[in-house]
Amino acid sequence: MAGTVLITGANGSLALPAVKYLLEAYPSFNLVLTVRDDSEQDANTAKIRLLVAQHPGVQASIRKLDLSSLENVRVFSKALLLEIEGKELPLTRTIICNAMTWNLADGPQYS
Q: pTM to 2 decimals?
């Protein structure tokens, strides 16, 4: 494997084409696709699962990550580091920060 690519907000409308491109153009990379809701009921996560399933030879995992919780980010980061140190995942080569929310009613909100 050439390395790990971490994508936040991987089930969002902007990320889906990026994930598809990475799956097709860089199949040697390990993709860590983070989503806020990793349940089977989430329609957006279902789309990313279908996309990943179309590329059975590629190493990709869908993981829950709620960026609005710094504690959640710390726990996720520590777990990811342990996987890299334990050689379960190759070194991180790229982080694509795609997660966002868009609230047209109340103006900007930050987490």
A: 0.87
Residue 69 neighbours by CB distance under 10 Å: 13
d(CA 108, CA 42) in angstroms, rounded, equals 25
Q: CA angle, 86 as apex, 95 and 59 as ends, to 5°?
A: 50
The backbone torsions φ and ψ at residue 60, rounded to the nearest 5 degrees and listed phi first, read -145, 140
Look up residue 28 and give its amino acid. Answer: S
Report angle CA 83, 27, 24 to the nearest 5 degrees. 135
Q: Is 40 exposed, middle or buried (CB count within 10 Å of its CB: 0-12, 13-18, 19+)?
A: exposed
pLDDT in tens, the chain (111 residues): 589 999 999 998 889 999 999 999 999 999 999 999 999 999 999 999 999 999 999 999 999 999 889 999 999 999 999 999 999 999 999 999 887 666 677 766 665
Backbone angles phi, psi at 30, to 5 degrees: -95, 125
